[in-house]
Amino acid sequence: MFAEKKHEEGLAPSQPDLDVGEVAHDAVFGEITEDGPNYRNVCTIETRHIVTGDANVEQVGWKGTAVLMMKTQIGLGVLSIPVAFDALGIVPGVIILITIAGITTWSDYIIGVFKLRHREVYCIDDVGELLAGKIGRIVLGVAFVLWWVFTAGSGMLGISIGLNAVSTHATCTAVYVAVAAIVAFLFGSIRTLGKVSWLAWIGLICILTAILIVTIAVGVQNRPSAAPKEGVWHSDYKIVNSSASFSSAISAVTTIVFAYAGTPAFFNIASEMRDPTHYNRALLLCQSVVTAFYITIGVVMYYFCGSYVSSPALGSGGPTIKIVSYGFALPGLIASTLLFVHITGKYIFIRILQGSRHLVANTVTHWSVWLGSTFTVTVVAYIIASAIPVFSDLVSLVGALLGTPMCFHPMAGMWLYDNWHKRTSGPRWGLMVAWCAFVLLSGTFLMVAGTYGSVVSIIDSYKASGGSAAWSCADNSSS
Asked: Which of 32, 57, 82 corresponds to the end of one domain?
């Protein structure tokens, strides 16, 4: 294949893993014809002119990829960064954030490298099979689905918080969660990421605008809404919070990990890129913007609010600012949630139909499995979010137990899988092995310690209030 020949010569082919002819063949999706969704917007011989750059063609270019990457991270996670800084202090908070950003950026980079070397890999469970056989595939596949289903449920609750804030709790919260689920299903059922990416653009701009509004507001007002109304206000921010308990500190660390936990979905996003060789530039843009934004928002908001920072942070600016900021944030929260539903549904859909003509053809089977997959994900996420008490603490538990190891362990294993045979190549190999060992050990520590911190938090929540009621009507936007 010409594309493979160009790749061997070190060139950058525009279609590195596709056979172009009467049909186009993709290593993940199989034969792509005119009779179905074009997941990567590849072209058959009759439509080859599209490759020349038709601006109207929907595709996941590197900029769209960067936005999709950002949207799997910025949304739910960023709203908790100031609270994490409150538990840790500004200096430890920033150091830990930068450290986690560095580790996850390396993990994300390894995903791009591994994807180019192993075109057939679609999701992290494929990596599990390469590393540990059938057991590895099952473990990582189940972990992937559980993680994103719980995250989708968390997104639905986030939307309900926004609707409560904007409407000043005009109706029962359970109704708002149901509305969020319906919207997530409808938009999450768009079949290709190329068509979803424009929603991600809107969502990203809106969530960034909302957070900037609150940040500016707390700086101008110089008094957070939860602070005492009488007397002169001085922020009680801490450079180092030496009084924090281990459980609260480790929960704050796992909160920061959660803010970068879009990593497991990067395989899925890369699989629908127009040109996967542009993955690194998308990753660099994503991680640079995300990290700069997290640090800026976290430091500024915690500096002005201190221990009175609200959770989620959009409630820190007072009633009016809260309504305005959530009004802007709602499209961003919706975009995040529909993306979680889409990615999880797409994973299930591909696993059911992979190798079948129905995967890329507009058949009854194709539509039934696709809509059935996204509907099932939506319903399960909705039930979990609405029916389980102390849901937010449960998300933290699942994040520590499943999300953390999926951002650390597989990527170290991927590097070793591809490079172990080079063990006589020199000192650089030894340094990389040491780095992989550090990633494995740090990921294991965060998984175990974060799980412990989440369990302690769940116990404390039950002691204090017994948790939230199932299908509660209570206003969840008050903070």
From this structure: 57
Structure tokens given for 358: 């129905």
pLDDT for the residue 470: 77
CA gyration radius for the chain? 23
Question: How many Å is the maximal CA-CA distance in the chain?
Answer: 76
Residue numbers of the domain that contains 48 = 1-57
Examine the domain organization and report whether 261 and 299 are in the same domain.
yes
- Distance between CA 469 and CA 177 in Å, rounded? 14
Give the pLDDT score at 465: 66
**Are both 168 and 186 inside the same structural domain?**
yes
- The whole model's pTM is what? 0.87
pLDDT by residue (tens digit) across 298-344?
A: 999 999 899 888 877 888 888 899 999 999 999 999 999 999 999 99
What distance in Å separates the CA atoms of residue 38 and residue 33, rounded to the nearest whole number?
8
Q: Does some domain include residue 337?
A: yes
Residue type, 57: V
Please list, residue by residue across 212-245, b when 16 or more beta carbons sit within 10 angstroms of its beta carbon and e when fewer do. Answer: bbbbebbeebebbbebeeeeebebebbeebeebe
Amino acid at the residue 337: T
Amino acid at 255: T
